[in-house]
Inverse folding.
DNA sequence: TCCTCCCGCCAAGCA
DNA sequence: TGCTTGGCGGGAGGA
């Protein structure tokens, strides 16, 4: 009598395969009961290498093992059935989840490489698959049909398919997008949403027929399977059920993602569109339910392929299941998608529809003369990425950023074969450079006329006016401060009100509002129809989303007075995250942090725009630009902010804004830095509460060992050690910091120089000030919550900075000035 | 209660 | 005629 132990071993195998990070062709863990391995002889070594190199051989081996074990399992099953009571037997069966199509698809995909060698076709025999996966044939058809729709497999003969992997995927997606555009799916989606909206006021259901006829009257006729040249479609029932097949449905479903912005499609809308195309008269509930069922089937497979991801769309009428496209970007009219269909390298195409910057710009601004800001998918992505960055930082707990396989997950799925590693690395690098380009585009997209022209003669110079952009588009309008000596420009982020002032006072500087700032030109075609969308992306994402929701909720009371930029901000915050931005979390984290913590005024060296990619650092890297993770925060050479006093005098930053703390200031530079400005100080000068910050600060500094136990650091060391320039002399006085604010500071070691600065929150209206998340840790560093700020100095004596965030929860901190 | 989707019937179509 | 393919919807597990 076989015991259920065997069954347990089987489910262990299932669990192993359920690992989300499980990639095809990973070497299966050796069963414990396996006898000791062969001696490490050259023959066995060769055997193993051959096995590792050839999926066929490995597959055969696996098959042999599986067939051995499957017969045992069958026997076990039979015995169990005989010896266990009905209930017990049912309990011993795998749960519903373990039999899901998604899991099955994972197992199916694990059998084949993502990018198989084209010289060596791998075939799929359905009998074998059903046997090995121990699943009904019917289920395999579901998977194969969807894969067929993406041309990842094609039917060769009865019971026999060819595995293409992802080689054809970019082409397929491009074709699907094109067909989707031709079929005007976007209009259909808008129409459906519009009808839904109207239906709220006309709930008698008469609209259904109208909608159906509208959908039917659209130009697109019954659509057939989208084929690729060279990938023939040989369905068994070519004529009969072709148009209803899961294949075609799957393609249409994918098209909806590819043409819509944001790339989120609710099942309801998808089902309606699919029904609308099929039989208009059957827009009844049962038909609808059936379509939804099929869409779930398709979505499960697409999710396993990591092309989509389940989310929920919250609309006025409730929460609806939807899916978000997480596959490669597919831009319209991209002609030069190159498939690296090399038969020798087996490498994945490293540029899955990733366009060059030029193409992106071309697509964004096709007509040179007229630069209307239309909502373009690329544009939306940039806005999304920025706002999601902000959202992530704002809402994220003080946990370290995990840079692991999850980072890779945001990329197009790669096989994990060793031979493809170079391609992966290359792709990573390209992704990084792409992100850099994105950053550049973020700088240039919205006000391209404001970006310095690349001509050498037009190099930005301090004395040369660079043009002024429309100000106050954003709550944080950056001012670019070029610094030719270092080749690094800095941006001062100011409040709009200050930006106005600054524009007035300093025509020599360029105002460059943040992307997303100007929303007047960025209007979705369907924004009127689209509802407020918030996405919930499962457990891990939910935590990030919650603050967004609360943020939105908190902003509601002031909706009337909100500016367009604020509306944009909110809308952008509601937009789904962009996976691209994950690629360089490490490099961008510092920038993100500063973006997050200095909503009022701060300086951001623009090295990220130009040298953001470490891999791209060449000669400048030697100069120290990219040598440090924190290079963005310190001067390339001296570690001090390259900002002469004259510049700051010119800037004349008016209101209560404390200079960036994430920048090291030399005493000379600090002399001119408008460390404090005055408006708020004056208004609150009467407040002279006890100063708890000093003790708190000293406690912290002592706690982390930055100062000896006996040493006391004044609460406002900046002010004590920094002579205030004449321009900022009216910043004298004292101020009371609003409660619950985050103070971020940078240490410049040695600490007894005391030249670290506080960044305080702006003197914005209280209701506009978001209560910052009070962290459990006093210090928030890029390294994580438990990472203490580090102090070090290099051999040249250049001081490294490390920054931390001091959160003062719900208490007043008074910064007084002598 | 509703969402999700497994399961298997059964018909179309192929060899 | 037997087998493959796959549309379809009942109904159960799970949230």
């Amino acid at each position: 009598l076989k015991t259920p132990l065997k069954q347990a071993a089987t489910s262990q195998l299932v669990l192993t395969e359920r690992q989300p990070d499980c990639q095809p062709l990973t070497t299966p863990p050796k069963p414990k009961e396996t006898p000791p391995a062969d001696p490490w002889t050259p023959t066995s070594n060769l055997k193993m290498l051959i096995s590792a190199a050839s999926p066929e051989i490995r597959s055969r081996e696996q098959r042999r093992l599986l067939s051995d074990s499957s017969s045992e399992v069958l026997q076990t099953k039979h015995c169990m059935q005989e010896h266990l009571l009905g209930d017990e037997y049912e309990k011993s069966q795998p749960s519903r989840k373990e039999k899901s199509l998604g899991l099955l698809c994972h197992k199916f995909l694990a059998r084949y490489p993502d990018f198989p060698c084209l010289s060596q076709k791998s075939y799929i025999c359905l009998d074998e698959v059903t046997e090995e996966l121990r699943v009904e044939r019917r289920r395999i058809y579901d998977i194969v049909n969807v894969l067929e729709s993406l041309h990842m497999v094609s039917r060769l003969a009865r019971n026999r398919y060819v595995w293409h992997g992802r080689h054809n995927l970019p082409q397929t997606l491009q074709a699907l997008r094109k067909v989707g555009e031709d079929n005007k799916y976007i209009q259909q989606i808008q129409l459906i949403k519009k009808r839904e909206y109207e239906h709220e006021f006309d709930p008698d259901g008469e609209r259904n027929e109208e909608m159906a006829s509208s959908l039917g009257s659209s130009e697109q006729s019954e659509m057939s399977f989208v084929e690729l040249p060279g990938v023939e479609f040989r369905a068994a029932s070519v004529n009969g059920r072709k148009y209803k097949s899961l294949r075609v449905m799957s393609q249409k479903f994918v098209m909806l993602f590819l043409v819509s912005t944001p790339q989120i499609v609710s099942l309801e809308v998808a089902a309606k569109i699919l029904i609308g195309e099929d039989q208009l008269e059957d827009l009844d509930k049962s038909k609808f339910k059936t379509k939804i069922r099929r869409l779930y089937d398709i979505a499960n497979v697409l999710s396993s392929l990591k092309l989509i991801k389940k989310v929920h769309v919250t609309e006025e009428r409730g929460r609806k299941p939807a899916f978000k496209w997480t596959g490669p970007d597919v831009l319209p009219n991209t002609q030069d998608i190159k498939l690296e269909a090399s038969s020798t390298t087996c490498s994945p195409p490293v540029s899955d529809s990733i366009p060059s910057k030029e193409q992106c710009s071309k697509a964004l601004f096709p007509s040179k003369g007229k630069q209307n800001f239309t909502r373009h998918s690329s544009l939306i992505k940039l806005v999304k990425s920025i706002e999601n960055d902000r959202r992530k930082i704002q809402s994220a707990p003080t946990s370290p950023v995990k840079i692991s396989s999850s980072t890779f997950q945001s990329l197009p799925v790669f096989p994990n074969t060793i031979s493809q590693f170079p391609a992966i690395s290359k792709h990573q690098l390209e992704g990084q450079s792409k992100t850099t380009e994105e950053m550049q585009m973020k700088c240039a997209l919205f006000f391209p006329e404001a970006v310095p022209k690349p001509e050498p003669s037009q190099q930005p110079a301090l004395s040369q006016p660079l043009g002024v952009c429309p100000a106050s588009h954003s709550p944080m309008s950056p001012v670019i401060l070029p610094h030719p000596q270092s080749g690094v420009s800095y941006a001062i982020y100011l409040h709009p009100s200050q930006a106005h002032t600054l524009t007035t006072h300093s025509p020599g500087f360029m105002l460059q509002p943040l992307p997303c700032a100007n929303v007047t030109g960025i209007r979705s075609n369907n924004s009127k129809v689209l509802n407020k969308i918030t996405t919930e992306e499962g457990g891990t994402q939910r935590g990030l989303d919650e603050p967004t929701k609360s943020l939105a909720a908190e902003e509601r009371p002031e909706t009337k007075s909100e500016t367009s930029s604020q509306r944009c901000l909110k809308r952008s915050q509601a937009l789904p995250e962009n996976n691209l931005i994950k690629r360089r979390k490490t490099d961008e984290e510092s920038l993100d942090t500063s973006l997050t913590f200095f909503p009022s005024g701060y300086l951001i060296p623009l090295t990220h725009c130009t040298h953001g990619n470490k891999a791209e650092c060449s000669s400048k890297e030697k100069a120290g630009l990219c040598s440090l993770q924190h290079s963005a925060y310190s001067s390339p050479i001296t570690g001090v902010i390259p900002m002469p006093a004259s510049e700051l005098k010119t800037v004349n930053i008016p209101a209560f804004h404390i200079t960036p703390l994430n920048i090291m200031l030399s005493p000379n530079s600090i002399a001119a830095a408008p460390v404090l400005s005055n408006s708020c100080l004056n208004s609150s000068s009467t407040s002279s509460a006890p100063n708890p910050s000093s003790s708190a600060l000293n406690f912290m500094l002592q706690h982390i060992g930055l100062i000896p136990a006996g040493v006391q650091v004044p609460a406002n060391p900046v002010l004590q050690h920094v002579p205030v320039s004449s321009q900022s002399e009216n910043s004298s006085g004292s101020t009371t910091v609003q409660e619950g604010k985050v103070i971020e500071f940078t240490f410049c070691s040695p600490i007894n120089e005391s030249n670290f600065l506080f960044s305080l929150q702006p003197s914005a209206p209280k209701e506009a000030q978001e209560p910052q998340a009070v962290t459990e840790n006093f210090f928030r560093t890029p390294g994580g919550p438990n990472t203490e700020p580090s102090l070090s100095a290099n051999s040249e004596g250049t001081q490294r900075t490390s920054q931390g965030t001091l959160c003062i929860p719900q208490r007043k901190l008074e910064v007084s000035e002598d």
